[in-house]
């Protein structure tokens, strides 16, 4: 199976997200609430000039009907990359499927599931490409 390569811009955004997650985790460590990590990750990304939207409502179309209560993205970076933030002891596999669903419903290709409640942040970052 062959996948279309991500754009240079998507790759740049992805690197900024990973770098910001490392920065936040190195400063705060694990054990805080998701909202704290969301606010701090947003701050780090905005510091490097990224457009970041928090708690973005995305409507869905189902059976020819438009629903405004579709889904909510934790972070939408540059209107191109979805970030779902967790701060849990154990990651539920359904959250990866949730990010995939977010990508399908938004028409975007790159998403991240980031769990900050880990000793090393590299084990808490999952990159998802559609």
Short description:
This protein is α+β, with helices and mostly antiparallel strands.
In the CATH scheme, what's the topology name? Trna Endonuclease, Chain: A, domain 1
Order of helical and strand elements:
HHEEEHEE
Distance between the termini: 12 Å
Compute the number of structural domains: 1
Strand content: 25-35%
Description:
This protein is α+β, with helices and mostly antiparallel strands and about 130 residues long. It has a single domain (about 10-130), classed as Trna Endonuclease, Chain: A, domain 1. About 40% of the residues lie in helices and about 30% in strands. It has 3 helices and 5 strands; from the N terminus they run ααβββαββ. The protein has helices at about 10-30, 35-45, 95-105; strands at about 50-60, 65-75, 80-85, 110-115, 125-130. A 5-stranded mixed sheet has the order 1-2-3-4-5, sandwiched between helices. α3 links the parallel β3 (about 80-85) and β4. α1 crosses α2. The longest helix is centred in the N-terminal third of the chain and has 21 residues, at about 10-30. It is globular, with a radius of gyration of 15 Å.
Q: What features would you highlight for this structure?
A:
130 residues, alpha+beta, Trna Endonuclease, Chain: A, domain 1, five-stranded mixed sheet, 3 helices, 38% helix, 32% strand
């Amino acid at each position: 199976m062959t996948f279309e390569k991500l754009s240079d811009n998507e790759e740049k955004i992805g690197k900024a997200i990973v770098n910001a997650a490392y920065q936040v985790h190195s400063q705060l460590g694990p054990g805080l609430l998701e909202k704290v990590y969301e606010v701090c990750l947003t701050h780090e990304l905005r510091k490097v000039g990224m457009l970041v939207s928090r708690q973005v409502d995305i409507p869905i179309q189902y059976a020819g009907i438009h629903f405004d209560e579709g889904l909510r993205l934790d972070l939408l970076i540059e209107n191109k990359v979805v970030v779902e933030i967790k701060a849990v002891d154990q990651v539920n596999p359904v959250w990866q499927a949730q990010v995939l669903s977010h990508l399908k419903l938004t028409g975007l290709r790159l998403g991240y599931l980031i769990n900050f409640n880990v000793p090393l942040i590299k084990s808490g970052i999952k990159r998802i490409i559609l």
